[in-house]
Amino acid sequence: MNYKCGYIAILGKPNAGKSTLVNCMVGEKVAIVSSKPQTTRNNILGILTKSNYQLIFVDTPGIHKSKNALDKFMMKNVRSAIGGASVNIYLIDSTKEITGEEIDYVKNLKQKNEVPLIVCLSKTDLVKKQELLIKLSQIANINEVDEVVPISSYKAYNTNELLEIILKYLPNEKEKNFIYDNDYYTDKSINFIVAETIREKALLCLEQEIPHGINVNIVSFIEKPNITVIEADIVCERESHKSIIIGKRGKKLKEIGEKARIDIEKLLDKKVLLKLFVKTKKNWRDSENYLKEFGYKKENL
């Protein structure tokens, strides 16, 4: 039997559907999803293991221009993923216009990293066929692109075909060369996933201008025989945001907590008592001390 193993970087602008694709390919929810830009901040691995191959999908932050220290950390993660990948997949949202800037980025991506480059047009279930054909033709004319695949991660359309294309570009090995144990589907800890789940529900419940400035810290995680007790802080940048997150009589914070608790109980397969608090740390996204405290390492800035 021959074996295949490799890292596959999932790249693209904010909201292109990167996290949804990783979750779809792995068959587990490894990355949070929302309609808000810059939802993903860290590189998150989604690991798909079968008898003869292991694919390690790297979900990356959306490609954007840096405005603060957190943005710089996120873009450093993108460059790191590209540098270590066996295959690069660049997602383009098919519901939006393909700009010259994005085409130039795709060209430069292949010129800087001579690994196979697959461009996926995502969210194809939301566009008309004629419009999709025009955009497929635009991408097919880029010489640097090795494959063009229209997909819908939401409906799992063409994802099996994408899997076969990825495998085609990975070399065969006689010896088993897997990096992770068979039962691993992500590299992240339970604490990280719980914190991200809470942040996902906050993104869902809060207004557009607030989510970029929030972070979630797990203060305590205590497992008891019949229940897990979790305390977490939702950190925001302004006092005015704090009152919005809490809501009138605590209604908004309660809504966030209830939605998060349901998902966390599914994750842990256990009853959860979730206690949420809101704290303000002014301009934390531009503070190296706060970023280090929140797990965004100083050396990565």
Care to describe what's here?
The structure is a single chain. Strand 5 (117-122), helix 4 and strand 6 (147-150) form a beta-alpha-beta unit. 36% of the residues lie in helices and 23% in strands. It has two domains: 4-169, Rossmann fold; 190-300, GMP Synthetase, Chain A, domain 3 (2-Layer Sandwich). The longest helix is centred in the last third of the chain and has 18 residues, at 251-268. The protein is an alpha/beta fold and 301 residues long. A six-stranded mixed sheet has the order 2-3-1-4-5-6, with helices on both faces. The protein contains nine helices and nine strands. Helix 6 runs antiparallel to helix 8 (251-268).
Our estimate of the beta-strand percent is 15-25%
Terminal Cα span: 43 Å
Biggest β-sheet description: 6 strands, mixed
CATH architecture of the largest domain: 3-Layer(aba) Sandwich
Question: What's the number of domains?
Answer: 2
Structural class: alpha/beta
> Helix share of residues?
25-40%
Query: Radius of gyration from the CA trace?
Result: 20 Å
CATH topology (fold) name of the largest domain: Rossmann fold
- What's the arrangement of strands in the largest beta sheet? 2-3-1-4-5-6
Count of extended strands: 9
List keywords for this structure.
301 residues, alpha/beta, Rossmann fold, GMP Synthetase, Chain A, domain 3, 2 domains, 6-stranded mixed β-sheet, 3-stranded mixed β-sheet, 9 helices, 9 strands, globular
Q: What is the gist of this entry?
A:
With 301 residues, the chain is α/β, with parallel strands linked by helices. It has helices at residues 18-26, 69-83, 100-112, 129-140, 159-169, 190-205, 239-246, 251-268, 288-293, and strands at residues 4-12, 44-49, 53-59, 87-93, 117-122, 147-150, 215-223, 227-236, 271-280. It has two domains: 4-169, P-loop containing nucleotide triphosphate hydrolases (Rossmann fold); 190-300, K homology (KH) domain (GMP Synthetase, Chain A, domain 3, 2-Layer Sandwich).
